[in-house]
Amino acid sequence: MIELIATAESLEQAEALLDAGADRLYIGGHPFGLRLPQPLSLEQIEDVIKRAHQRGKKVTVSCNALMHNQQIAQLPDYLQKLADFGADAVAIGDPGAILTLKELKLELPFVYDAGTLVTSAEQIAFWVNQGASGAVAARELTLKELFAMQKKLKQPVEVQVYGPTCIHQSGRPLLTNYFTYTHAESPDQQLFCVIRKMRTASIRFSRMKTGHIFSRLKICR
Length: 221
Prior knowledge:
CATH class of the largest domain: Alpha Beta
Distance between the termini: 27 Å
Oligomer: single chain
CATH topology of the largest domain: TIM Barrel
Shape: globular
Largest sheet: 7 strands, parallel
Radius of gyration: 19 Å
CATH architecture of the largest domain: Alpha-Beta Barrel
Strand content: 5-15%
Structural class: alpha/beta
């Protein structure tokens, strides 16, 4: 069975996606969620969960950041609130966050989401043994690899199919960083690898406030 999952950046968008046929919404909040179009407050997350459940749909809340000490200290209260709201699952990739969730003994399933690290059925099986209900596959995998992976697993594997999400939703000012570090006066402030001679390439710039950069080959058509 295929489940259609869509990210939502607001309550209005969440309702529109549910009405359009999404089976599950993927949302999250700062500082625990990555690759989100817009972080939501706890109040907004609770509202989205209520409205999704009223339609018989589900909600996964992103907690897939690499947790530092401060985030880990804040995580138990956050997870407890998500469980109280009735979240259907959380997406987690940090082992420390997974340990925290298990120690809380909440009725809150987790999906293993560690970005580029999830590249084999055996790795997913390891985290299933740790309690994961499924996993998000790395975007770099081919369709052939994904089919081979799923054949070895009983748990579902999530696959992102809508383009270079890490770039167009990350909010990272790539151009600003590039020019800051490549033009730095001190070599210690420059990028680790600066290519002095580059081949001619066709590049498009999105008209976003952060000034992201795209190769024409990476833009969805």
